[in-house]
Amino acid sequence: MNDDGLTIWLTGLSGAGKSTIATLLASRLIERGAAVEILDGDEVRTNLSAGLGFSKEDRDTNIRRIGYVANLLTRNGVHVIVAAISPYRAVREEVREKIGRFLEVYVECPIDVLADRDVKGLYRKALAGQLDHFTGVSDPYEAPQRPDVRVNSSAETVEESVAKVLIAIDDLGQPDLATGTDG
Ligand SMILES: Nc1ncnc2c1ncn2[C@@H]1O[C@H](COP(=O)(O)OP(=O)(O)O)[C@@H](O)[C@H]1O
Ligand SMILES: [Mg+2]
Prior knowledge:
With 183 residues, the chain is an alpha/beta fold. The chain has helices spanning 18-31, 41-44, 56-74, 89-99, 111-117, 122-127, 158-172, 175-179, and strands at residues 6-11, 36-40, 79-83, 102-108, 149-152.
């Protein structure tokens, strides 16, 4: 593994598996000797973004703040794993352009599976019309159109999803192989 930093940005609905995948991915990268930090949406909202709500403006501010920190770390050689819903495409593109070394990972899962899982009991409330601004039910989610990696937690194990991300990371680290050297 080379010494360049990288931001691996996991986007997807609540309960899709972002935090779970981030944790296992971090372990795998640490085993390979990388410096790793996780910026998890839930945790960020209790400190870096404390006080922000769930309007489009506040959500975009939250993502810009995460992107700002991810950029500082990435340019100092850290592998940054972001696990945040990040529902709006434009601001995802904005942070991608700022950071440069960036992989967008779409953590997909059908809404009926999420409602069954209901890790935090929020889908039941949202689907009953009792929760405003709940992404995917009562608030927008703009799915990536061309993510670098697409994983599906209803069809893959966590291990399988992490393996896909690791392959994409390895491809990034080997530009000669990716582009070919003899035309
Ligand atoms: N293949 C999978 N990948 C990730 N999570 C999975 C998978 N299969 C089942 N799960 C479960 O789905 C839930 C995902 O929750 P979490 O990782 O907190 O989601 P998010 O961070 O996206 O809100 C966990 O309870 C996890 O054990
Ligand atoms: Mg999470």
